[in-house]
Each structure stands twice: as structure tokens, then as C-alpha cells.
Amino acid sequence: MATEHLSPLDLAFWRIESADHPMHLGALAVFRAAGPGGAERAAHLLTARCAAVPRLRRRIRDVLLPVGAAAWSPDPGFDPARHVFLVRTGEAVPHAAAGPLMARPLDRALPPWEAHVLAGPDPDSFAVLFKFHHALADGMGALALAATLFDEATAPRPPARPVPEQRAGSVLRRLPGVLAARVQDVGQALEIGAAVARAGLPLGVPAALTAGSTGSGARAVAGLALDLDEVNLVRKGAGGTVNDVLIALVAGALRRWLAERGDPEPWGAGPRALIPVSRRRGPGGSGGAGNRLSGYLLRLPLAESDPLRRLGSVRAAMDRNKDAGPARGAGAVALLADHVHPLGHRLGGPLVAQAARLLFDILVTSVPLPSFTFTLGGSPVREVYPLAPLARGQSLAVAVSTYKGTVHYGLVADAAAVPDLAALAGALRAELDELVREVS
């Protein structure tokens, strides 16, 4: 069997991890229990099903060549009990229990994923916190992996197209095009690097969005569910896309939250938000469960007091990003990973992790979900909160998904830097209420 090396971007995510800044993403799925013992049944099914998913049985190992690279290999001692856990918690809201679990790094000697079934005091409800290392999957890839553990709910995937054998003659005929593509890649890398330099140093960033040079390592998690109909009402009344509205809600909520905390104004040009953009094609994505990411970079207009003008500013910035495309601009920095030798990722990982603070101040990411109902042991999912990893030196990451007519915001914060994360969730609700009033 041919060795499957980690792609450059997957390798970068694997190398930049530290104990205080684990690089796993998560999803907190809340279920309506289909009868007594729903949590126990879910844990049993996850334990039984994960062994049948090849990608969940593979771990990451360093390889001799290329120097600095890593590859996937089957875990000969794979034990589902080391990945699926039943956690009995006294918390009525599962987000409180999810915080400490998100803070705990995955075991790097094992396949890099976990599923924690959270059984709270309400027998009619339970939750599952899925954790997938970013080297294993991006948000869409993680969704595809989690779906393999649910009841039969996913549409059949089209058969993989065989890769045609390349003969020497065909390679020679393609050589001029290959060389031209390499030259284009170098030009693209230089252009992205120049855009990163133009993005400038962080200026006027609210102190609440920073967590010192390293951060505490502790994590807090909060979530908020909003009615998609209200978001669409704002979109129709003010223009733009649903995603524009969701980003503008973050900007307005941060402004409200910071004001309540007593953070001084003005906030200059505003904090820089990195908006990841999936490069997967088609409804099932393109090939594999690893990362297919680029991104946009924009300033969140916190200094703008009018909510509709804030939304207009976000819309204009996103339009500019889309016109340039996801392969250009400072937000496309993830594409630079393709131009780094594996040894560079190995030696430079810690430096890259510290440099994230120089590029962006907050992550705002969106994970699209399909419209059908996920179930596990007959228990339907009623809420899905995506959870993003937290970069070194930053105190807050925001992820958002839409499921069954509801928008779910998942907030992950450095617990020491942001002890009032629930207040930020409340500010999101207040911001949507004000925008609805403005367009009604």
C-alpha cells in the first residue's frame, strides 16, 4: 500500500500544536433522546461504529523521507474505548462541560479524534462533543466523518474516479504545463506574502481579544441559537448575503460586549477577522477528509455605531474579497503551506503558531450543514454548535452553522481572558434584535 503523506496544510496544523493550544476543532451536537437510556445507547453505537471507519483508525507518524514529513498509518492497537467516552455531568447546559474537554489535547500517539457523550440531568436530552484534529479534517471534512457514525442519513457518495496511470510520454508532454504552473505558484506565493505585509501590525485591538503571549490554556465554551428567518429578514431588508449578516452580528455583538466591559473607545480600524473559505467542490467536497482551505481577511467595523452601516461595511469588505477570490490576499495565507518543505513545517511550526497573532485577531468561521435530520440510535439532533481552535495569543474564536432553520453560534474562549463569555452570546441576541427592528 502506498504511503499517504499529510498534505502541506495538514502537516502545518499538526506541527503548530502545543499543549496549551491544541489544534482540534469540535462540534457539540445536542440530541432529543428517543426514550430512556439515550446517552448510553449513543455511546454504545459510537463505540461499535467507529471501528468500521478506516479514517478513524489511522494515526499520524513521522517518516524518514521526505525529511520532516509525516504520514497516516493504521493503528494496530486501535481501541474504541480510548476514543469514545460517556461523561455524566450535572450541567443542564452541555456547553459548560465542553469547555474543559476542548482544552484537553488529543493523544498524538492515537488516531486524532474523540467523541464525548455528555449525559446531563435531563433524561430527555443528551449531547455529543466530537473532537477532530485539524490535521485530520476541516469543518466540512469533520462533518463527513461524524456523519459516518450517525444512523443511515447521508446520501450515497459517488464512486471515486480512478486516477489514470501516467506514462513517461504523457508526463513529458505535460512538462511545459507543469513548469508553467510552478512559476504561477511562486508568483501567487509572492503576491500573498505581499498582501500579508500590507495587512499591517495589529493596531487598536481591544484588550479583551488578546490572551497575552501564550494564554492560560483553559477553555470556556458558549452557544447561542438564533432563528434563521430573522436573519433572512435582515438580509432581505438590508441586502447582502446571510453570511454577511452573520459576520455583522459578530461585529455588533463585540461592540456591545466591549462597551459593557468598559473597554475604551475608539477601536481604530477594528480587529482583523480571518474568514476561512472552503476550497471543496460540489456537495460532497473534493477528495479526502483533510483540509481544503483558503480565507478572507477583513476589519470588523466596531467603531461604527449604526448597525445597518456596520452591516454595509461588512458587505462591502466581503464583496471586495470575493472579487479578488480566495487564492489572493492576506487571508489566503493558508495556501503558503503548499510552498514550504516538510522540514520547514517541522522546524518552523512553533514560530508560525506565534505569528498567527500578527495576521489576525479573531477567527470567524462558518460550517454549512445539510438540511436532513441527523439521528443517533433514533435520537434526532436538534442543535449543532461548531467549535473552532484558538490561536496562540488570542482569546476568542467564533464558529457558526445553520441547521434545520436555526443558526447556531459556537464560541470558544480563553477562560482566564474571557470569564464572561455568556455575556457575548447575549450580545449576539441583542444585536440581531436591533437589526430586525431597523429593517422592520
From TrEMBL:
The keyword Transferase applies. Keywords: Acyltransferase, Glycerol metabolism, Lipid biosynthesis, Lipid metabolism, Transferase. The keyword Nucleotide-binding does not apply. Its EC number is 2.3.1.20. It holds the Pfam family WS_DGAT_C. Pathway: Glycerolipid metabolism; triacylglycerol biosynthesis; Lipid metabolism. Residues 6-245 form the O-acyltransferase WSD1-like N-terminal domain. It catalyses: an acyl-CoA + a 1,2-diacyl-sn-glycerol = a triacyl-sn-glycerol + CoA. InterPro entries: Acyl_transf_WS/DGAT, O-acyltransferase_WSD1-like, O-acyltransferase_WSD1_C, O-acyltransferase_WSD1_N. Residues 269-288 are annotated as: Disordered. Residues 290-435 form the O-acyltransferase WSD1 C-terminal domain. PANTHER family: O-ACYLTRANSFERASE (WSD1-LIKE) FAMILY PROTEIN, WAX ESTER SYNTHASE_DIACYLGLYCEROL ACYLTRANSFERASE 4-RELATED. Belongs to the long-chain O-acyltransferase family. This is Diacylglycerol O-acyltransferase. It comes from Streptomyces nojiriensis.
